[in-house]
Amino acid sequence: MTTRTEDHAPTAGTVLTGAGVGRRVAVGPVVQVRPAPVVPGDAPVVRDGRPVPADEVPDAVTAAFADVAAALREQAGRATGTVAEVLGATAMMADDPSLKDKVLAEVREGEPAVAALDAAVATFAAMFEQAGGYLAERVTDLRSVRDRVVARLTGTPAPGVPELREPSVVVARDLAPADTAALDLERVLALVTEEGGPTGHTAIIAGQNGIPCVVRTTGATALAEGVDVAVDAAHGTVTVDPAADVREAMAARAAAEEALESDTAPGGTADGHRVQLLANIGTAEDAERLVDAPVEGVGLFRTEVLFLGRQHAPTVDEQTTAYARVLRALGPGRKVVVRTLDAGADKPLAFANLHPEENPALGVRGYRLVRSAPQLLADQLTALARAGEETGTQPWVMAPMIATPAESRAFAEAVRGAGLRTAGVMVEVPAAALRAAAVLDEVDFVSLGTNDLAQYTMAADRLRGELVDLLDAWQPAVLELVAATARGGAAKDKPVGVCGESASDPLMALVLTGLGVTSLSMSPSALPAVRFALRRHTLDQCRAMADAALAAADPAAGRAAVADLLDADARAALGV
Ligand code: PEP
Ligand code: MG
């Protein structure tokens, strides 16, 4: 094995490393998504192949923005779930007058259109990057709008992903949502990006589709077109032109993964301790894909997907229809945990987050919106109660970003006042974890959002890819807070679930079970491996693993200590 040192194409056996998303593997030929061609700033604006007169250039600019927005909206209309949502948000960016007006002002001053657009995009990109968080992640979308507008203005081909003629590993600097939507996902064996973070769009879309993915892979864009690579998401590695033994190991891992999918029994340990295995969803379409799936219910329905990218909140009727579709899809026998709107910070909404905040992740987000926009919660609870009546299935309803027992009480009163029976809260703030028993005096259940819990415990922005080591849910400090929450649940004999990303890591699932967590909710594609890991170990073994993880000095030591305690067959099948 060699490590990459030069700048030319990495050679056979070279192992590139990045941050893996999920745990699947794939081997296949590289298809590079090349960046848009460089168009000079003074390139002429053309229409029907002929240069546009100077006095008509502003109109051409306006039309180009409108065409790009319309094309993106149309793509969004054909897509579903998260892809549709992110495409809608990119279309809004193309529609946003602030970018277009800045370009038009320069053009009217005599600046060439492409140069004016480049300058405006550079200004906005710098602003977004400085703001950090959600906005920093939108820079890729902004550049994708720029490339599309330039293509329209100059009559050059629109940038896009290459057509895949065979199953391939798609490699890019980063993928904008519009690129991802244009991909034939059936032929995508794996996604590898040089930039992007583990919670960025590429990672989310890969996770939802069960596609192996490695982000932040240094050197990926230098990979030669067509060279075979072995992508191992569990280890965050990309091996160039892998040797026969690596290919065999990957094939064995892929076969084991398939075998895991044949087990459809409810979740539980080898000695029969039950752990509910649930799915995370964002849309009614996601729920409808679960109709015949071996999942015991939904542990997190992120309702904000219905609200994002809009100028006004959806009406009570519209919400009722969407929630009823979800409840109907899961049927009367399966539990559905609906989270009320989690807007703010990385998910800003035009109608909810009215004032810019210096520290939005610490500001009026999640349940705290009840302070400034109480009608949003009231309408949502009304719609959920109506959907429950219509379908005969009562949803469990929980609030995001709860910090205190008093907030929990107020939320539970609102839920019950709306005629709903089961109220819970998310534990994402260390204060709520430390006071879990008092929180559970007020509500029927809690669910740990380990993504935010890690962010707030470690004081590390979850969208900053370079802080991924701090954001690790294996950080012993984060696990201490999970343990405190589980103790609160045991004391009050009430359910304590986990619906953050950590639930989808089979080793972590064992630790969480050992800590006393009663349900695990994850992307459906992650479920078979978690089910398998649980089935191979007793509750006492899980408890020993939890002790080992808590006693470890750091995340790597915790993982290694738990891996040492794994049953040998499980270690082989999980590729540990
Ligand atoms: C979490 O924070 O872990 C969580 C599940 O909520 P979200 O990722 O939607 O913030
Ligand atoms: Mg959260």
From TrEMBL:
Signal peptide residue numbers: none
E.C. numbers: 2.7.3.9
Residues noted as binding phosphoenolpyruvate in the record, renumbered to the chain: 302, 339, 451-452, 462
Keyword Nucleus: no
InterPro entries: PEP-util_enz_mobile_dom, PEP-utilizing_PTS_enzyme, PEP_util_AS, PEP_util_C, PEP_util_CS, Phosphohistidine_dom_sf, PTS_EI, PTS_EI-like
GO biological process: phosphoenolpyruvate-dependent sugar phosphotransferase system
Protein name: Phosphoenolpyruvate-protein phosphotransferase
Organism: Cellulomonas triticagri
